[in-house]
Amino acid sequence: MLAASDHLSSSPVPELFSIETSVVRLTWAQRRQKPVAVPPEAPPAVPFGLVVTGHGKHKPAVQVDDGAMPCLFEQTDYTLFVRSRAGQHIAVRHTDPMLLRGVQQAEGSQVRHGVVNFGTQVGESRFVVLVDGQPHVSFQVEVIPSKLSYRADYDALHADLQAFARSLSVAYLRAAVQPAGQHEKPPSEVEWITLVHGIIDKLEQAARYLVQHPQWSTQPEPRLTRIERITHPDPLVQRALAEGRGKGAWQDVPDLGPVRRGVPARPATYTLDTPEHRWLAGALHTMQQRLSRLSEQAEATSSTRARYLAHTLTTLEQRVTALLRLSPLREVEPSPHVAPTLRLRTAPGYAEAYRLCLHLRRGLHIGGEAFELHLKDLHLLYEYWCFFTVLRLLAEAADTNVPWRDLVQVDHRGLHVRLRKGHHRRLRIDFGDSKHAVLIYNPRFSGRRYLVPQQPDFVLDVHRGTDVARYVLDAKYRLNASPAYQRRYGVPGPPADALNALHRYRDALRDQHGGIREAVALYPWRDEAARFPDSRHAQALRDMGIGAIPLLPGHTDYLRDWLWRVVG
Predict the structure, then answer these.
(1) DSSP 187-215
(2) What is the pLDDT of residue 151?
(3) pLDDT tens, position by position, 318-332
(4) Mapping DSSP to helix (H, G, I), strand (E, B) and coil, where does residue 367 land?
(5) Residue 446 structural domain
(6) Is 147 exposed, middle or buried (0-12, 13-18, 19+ CB in 10 A)?
């Protein structure tokens, strides 16, 4: 039986890079050839995006194979091997422990070896090698997509989603408070007004709680105190007694001798003048001043909507002013520069008010899972982008606006997009003439008529009077561009199991509306040479109602043509 080191040295996989110190040696190898779907773009200037850092006095030596690929790819198997040179215990850590599930220990934990596959995770990925439980050397690699142009398509996906988020915020604002000409104002002001609308009710609720449950503090205040009321003499009292200071008649006190009846002391008194109240009063005072300024600007614009905005801002200002008049905030001098205390961040009522004011300072938050994806959640990023692209093209076909009211809710965080993987969401687009379309995100079909529950990515129901035509769309961030696949289908496309899922959906999804008219897989490929219309995917979609459509930013024409056909 081969040892771990013998197995690695005897395997034909190419070594991509190695890291050596006086204590450990690490090698990183590629088990397979580069993915066939790698887009033709310039590789990164730095091989692997590799950054190596030694901890303590250790200076690692790095060697990169000249013939190795200059970058790492998603969904590719790599072999990691680390050996201790002095018999110490070795461990490897990563922020995602599942990434290292294929890495095992050997030779009494003096060796770590196994397979690392980043899946659909892309971006920077950092590993730390520990020796006897202490960080010894860390290295960071950059993983790029094998199905997207990293510097073009990936950035375009993010840019499209952010543009959609901005359009949602503008649509909400236009319906709520935005006057004519408001687009000339800085976006931060527009977003800030929107957020005030979202938090003012909760802010008033938190303030009412503060009135009923104020947090008091004690504050020593020097004053004459009768000697019999002093139970714990502090240094001030002790000095006054020793020096015979005070007022009133002399009286004899056991163990003290003659003392004055009234002695200078600092008894603690309860007060509402606390750092917490000064911070909150300062935040509300700043809000009040900004609302007043914006109201004056709106009043200077002579339009009906501007007057409505001025009235809205004045109302908000009056509500904030009323909060400042409440006890305990009226007892303090506003001071927004006071450092927030632990009690302000944790006490009931105070924590809510602090969080709301903090969000207001930061400005509008376009939230929701669809807009908060980490760099590494590439398959979900593509799925969300596909959904918003379908929705946008449907609205374009109907010559109407995206139904933002069904997508957006406002809370203390600002605008929140109600779209989450695994939770269905229905959005309706009206075409007129008794025709409308309903786009459903992540619908789930289950019950007695389904032996196995079905959950496609999107379902599109096109209603024409009492007739309903149903279509399935599946966003597949998977691409097969092998020569054999292209000989069979004519173009790169989704793998066979993704196509099989479309047949399953068409056979399984039957209800009172009937079955599926067509089922389509959306996949990331850029058809630069216009090969897709003659491919088997396009032909099968026209003839059998099952096929695939390439979809990437800037290349949405094929999907647009298909949507206009099914809703026309």
Answers:
(1) HHHHHHHHHHHHHHHHHHHHHHHHHHS--
(2) 57
(3) 999 999 999 889 888
(4) strand
(5) 377-567
(6) buried
Burial class (CB in 10 A: 0-12, 13-18, 19+), 221: exposed
Q: Does any domain span residue 205?
A: yes
- The answer to the question of residue 323 being in a domain is yes
Query: Structure tokens of 158?
Result: 């993010």
Is there a single domain that holds both residue 301 and residue 447? no
Which residues lie across from 126 on neighbouring strands? Answer: 140
Number of Cβ atoms within 10 Å of the Cβ of 149? 18
Compute the distance between CA of residue 509 and CA of residue 353 in angstroms, rounded to an integer.
Answer: 49
Helices (H), 23-152: none
Residue 345 shares a structural domain with residue 460: no
Report how far residue 281's alpha carbon sits from residue 270's, in angstroms, rounded to the nearest whole number: 19
Q: Is the Cβ–Cβ distance between 258 and 251 less than 8 Å?
A: yes
Residue pointed to by tokens 């091997």: 81
Residue among 391, 383, 370, 440 at smallest CA distance from 162: 370
Query: Cβ distance 460 to 390 under 8 Å?
Result: yes
Which of 362, 392, 418 is the C-terminal boundary of a domain?
A: 362
d(CA 28, CA 82): 9
Q: Which residues, given as ranges, of the chain have pLDDT below 50?
A: 1-11, 34-46, 173, 176-188, 363-367, 369-376, 412-414
Residue 542: predicted pLDDT: 93
* pLDDT digits 0-9 by tens, 443-487: 888 777 777 888 899 999 999 988 899 999 999 988 888 899 999
What 3-state DSSP class applies to 47? helix
Q: How far is CA 392 from CA 322, 464, 565, in A?
A: 43, 20, 16
DSSP per residue, 410-466? EETTEEEE--BTTB-EEEEEEEETTEEEEEEES--B-STT-SS-B--SEEEEEEETT
Token couple for 378: 């590439």
DSSP readout, 544-568? TSEEEEE-BTTB-HHHHHHHHHHH-
Q: Beta strand 72-73 with 134-144: parallel, antiparallel or unpaired?
A: parallel
Position 260 scores a pLDDT of 79
Torsion angles phi and psi, residue 6, rounded to 5: -65, -40
End-of-domain residue from the set 303, 337, 362: 362
Q: For residue 26, tell me if it sits in a domain.
A: yes
